[in-house]
Amino acid sequence: MSAHLMQFSELLADLAVKDIKVWVEGDRLRCNAPAGALTAELRGQLQDRKGEIIAFLNMATAAATQQPAIIPLQSRGTRTPIYAVPGHVGAPFTFSDLSKHLGGDQPFYALQPTGYDGQSEPMDRVEDIAEDFARQIVEYQPTGPYIIAGYCSGAPTAFELAKILGRRGAEVPCIALFGPLHPTTYQELPRWLYFSARETAEALLREMAKLPTFSARLRYFGSRVRERFRALGSKQPVATDPVLASRARLKSTALAAFQRYDPTPYTGRVCIFLPNKAWLRSGAGPRRWLRVVPHAEFYFGPEGCHAASMLEDPEAPAIAELYRQAKI
């Protein structure tokens, strides 16, 4: 999960733990909190992220009256609807910025896996997750066509989902995979170590680049190194927050399902959108999808675009433009 989404998820979890209720009335965000629970810091975060929270609560309300897996990010439009599988943390709002930049005529639905709500148990097989999504999509929209999308480690589930729908006679014009990880990324230890090290180094360099001077960057680098050594030498606390514990269980279960999945050949159209050309050598194994989809089309984002944030602003517009170029 990117830092942006992680912070938003932590904010919502913090509100839940402190029994702070937030709801939407029209276009206004309302709040009710026990005495002393709403600190100045939390009040500031609620104000700063008001738009995100309202959008999220509206999505949750819509989902509660429909299929729980289907989160409408954009329900209007005449183009073929997109149903998108997020990465292993299951966050449906991963696609919020991308859906916005695809325009008001593009229906876009994020798919929320069981276990993300903290009430249900996560599934431990890609095939079962895809089957559950397929059932709810057909209940929500009985006939196709459907565009199936997947991001990061959600790519295998999207791939399997499209195959299930296709076997049942539905029209799936395209599978759109954004920064997809191939299952061998985590199956092969050297590949996983290289991928993890590269992702960590790139994230560190991005943060350092934001600092104004070389000395500030050097201090930041030193602080991160010290933090890492302290973490290695300390015992990790057990998560007591039920929401965070539920998300951690979903993440570990989803990664185990991802590792076990073995994709089989597919004859339909597949478009693979990578953050940049260098990502072909990232260890994520994007070319390995050619083993089962030799006709897959590759599209590359601009240099400097990063997999962790490719679906978020300010990088989302470039990825939306790639999608339009594919003429899906």
Automatic annotation (TrEMBL):
<dbReference type="InterPro" id="IPR029058">
    <property type="entry name" value="AB_hydrolase_fold"/>
</dbReference>
<dbReference type="InterPro" id="IPR001031">
    <property type="entry name" value="Thioesterase"/>
</dbReference>
<dbReference type="InterPro" id="IPR044894">
    <property type="entry name" value="TubC_N_sf"/>
</dbReference>
<dbReference type="Pfam" id="PF18563">
    <property type="entry name" value="TubC_N"/>
</dbReference>
<dbReference type="Pfam" id="PF00975">
    <property type="entry name" value="Thioesterase"/>
</dbReference>
<dbReference type="InterPro" id="IPR020802">
    <property type="entry name" value="TesA-like"/>
</dbReference>
<dbReference type="InterPro" id="IPR041464">
    <property type="entry name" value="TubC_N"/>
</dbReference>
<protein>
    <submittedName>
        <fullName>Thioesterase</fullName>
    </submittedName>
</protein>
<feature type="domain" description="Thioesterase TesA-like">
    <location>
        <begin position="83"/>
        <end position="280"/>
    </location>
</feature>
